[in-house]
Amino acid sequence: METVPAPLRCLGECHAAEKFTDDGVETVTSMEQKKVERSIQEVISVYKQMHSFPQPTLLRDQHYQYLKKGLRHLSDSYECLDASRPWLCYWILHSLELLEEPVPSSIASDVCQFLARCQTPAGGFAGGPGQHAHLTPTYAAVNALCIIGTEEAYSVIDR
Q: Which of 1, 6, 15, 98 is packed most tightly, with the most Cβ within 10 A?
């Protein structure tokens, strides 16, 4: 029996209730958030005008394969993100988590070993091996390791 996919939240009737509310206090951040929401709404409106079917289909298996491949190899177009490699690990692992797809244990172990090479002796994680550690890649690396959640992953974190 084929299951009908749940509608995407952004196309649901209650989506408007999820929009950002600034409680009457405008900040640079709140204005940027509203700008992003307007931009997304425009994309959704154009999509609805161009397509007769009610919503896009999430190609889960293709997404899973692409994400899983990204944990092992990214194309040259990602070279500009060399100092963000723990973030790439985190974003891919989090996407897999949202899809409720498992990370094969051999890939999880490879990610743990890679992130261990990003950790510096002075503490914290760098954006890549041999780079300087700082807070943002440390945050990403720890989140990625917690998503993996194995003993190996937890042992990488030098507390």
A: 15
